[in-house]
Amino acid sequence: MAGIRLPPEDSDLSQARPLATTDLISDDDRSVAADSWSIKSDYGSTLDDDQRHADASEALSTVTFRTASDYSSDKEEPDAEAVASMLGFQSYWDSTYADELANFREHGHAGEVWFGADVMETVASWTKSMCADISQGHLVNHVDNDKSEPVEQGDKDLASWSVLDIGTGNGLLLQELAKQGFSDLTGTDYSEGAIDLARSISDRDGFTNIKFLVDDVLETKLEQKFQLVMDKGTLDAIGLHPDGSIKRIMYWDSVSKLVAPGGILVITSCNSTKDELVQEVGGFNQRTGASQEPETPGDQESGRYPPPFRYLDHVRSYPTFMFGGSVGSRVATVAFQRTQNQ
Predict the structure, then answer these.
(1) Which one of 71, 235, 239, 296 is at 20 to 30 Å from 283 when CA atoms are compared?
(2) Is the separation of the CB atoms in 294 and 304 below 8 Å?
(3) Which 8-state DSSP code applies to residue 164?
(4) Alpha-carbon distance 315 to 332, whole Å?
């Protein structure tokens, strides 16, 4: 995925003709890209390895690479980032969900569970516990460590929380949240095929109350603000676009408008650690700080401006590993709270 560096190969580029895409992609490249695409299979998958590699190879064949004349003599490889960034294009996901929709209609398979079923269930149950604590005023802000900021709702019932899942894919995360007691559920995806698949699966499984809409989070048309916004892998995919750094800035600008004041944003990522996500939110807070209004009279007097988001908590139950003296995990789930300044 992000940060992959493909090993160079000892091959000469032909000067007689521009190389075709298939000439520039080796079997090793296909294997690495397929492994990148299928990281979620480490936690469970409905597709076998041969099918997964075939799908990734087919997707690679649609990527436009530079011709041989565009490469210098000491760099005769297509950029690894260009190979990995296929997951950042809507055309890739349109093709993927078209296949998965056809597979669902023929065999009833729901398709891939991004990061696997275990992670999805952990995210749903952990989110429920956190939201219940917030509703009851039990959870303190882990940054300030001396105050809590409960989501404003009358009956403190999870059923009344408005929930948005951005980049919902097949919509299975929303089904898990429904099982946890949430009922005001909306899923969006910029791929129409994903929305068709999510609706079909939800109807089959009896979750007819879940709403699904075609919407691009970077150019969202939604006007509603939600008390809980979920992102499981969407920020990862956005970051894999060749203009990922710019699109990530667009992401935060857009998401900050979708989370209600006092609401919660939960991000699950395999490309960013908990600390990296906190740092990215800190950068967004800095960029937008000058435009924020003081949150309290005390802030106004002191000239302090509240940040748009505060770190709340993260999942601590994922398996960890040691690398370079640091402890990490393959997946990070982090919660941020929107400040009450709107």
Answers:
(1) 296
(2) yes
(3) E
(4) 7
Closest C-alpha among 33, 32, 52 to residue 100: 52
> What's the mean pLDDT in 1-15?
37
CB–CB of 240/208 below 8 Å? no
Q: Return the residue matching tokens 């075609």.
A: 214
Which residue from 124, 141, 146 is spatially nearest to 262, judged by alpha carbons?
A: 141
**How many helices and strands, by DSSP H and E, does the chain display?**
12, 9
Between CA 318 and CA 337 the distance in angstroms is 22
- Domain range 117-338, CATH class: alpha beta
Structure-token match 């398709």, residue found: 111
In the numeric block, the tokens 């969202």 are attached to: 220
Give the model's pLDDT for residue 258: 98
Domains of the chain, by residue range, sit at: 21-88, 117-338
pLDDT tens digits for range 175-228? 999 999 999 999 999 999 999 999 999 999 999 999 999 999 999 999 999 999
CA–CA gap between residue 65 and residue 25 (Å, rounded) = 10
Binning the chain into helix, strand and coil, the percentages to the nearest 5 are 45, 15, 40
Supply the pLDDT for residue 3.
37
How far apart are the C-alpha atoms of 295 and 85, rounded to whole Å? Answer: 40
Q: Name, in order, each residue with C-beta under 8 angstroms of 120's C-beta and a sequence gap of 6 or more.
A: 113, 114, 172, 173, 176, 232
Cα separation, 128 vs 258, in Å, equals: 20
- CB hemisphere CA count around 336 (13 angstroms): 27
117 by DSSP, 3-state: which? helix
Q: Helix (H, G, I), strand (E, B), or coil: what is residue 321? A: strand
Which distant-in-sequence residues (6+ apart) come within 8 Å of 90 by Cβ? 190, 191
Asked whether 237 and 90 are in contact (CB, 8 A), the reply is no
DSSP at 240: T
Q: What is the pLDDT of residues 282-340, one digit of tens each?
A: 999 999 874 445 445 555 454 566 899 999 999 999 987 776 777 778 899 999 999 97
Mean pLDDT, range 268-294, rounded to an integer? 85
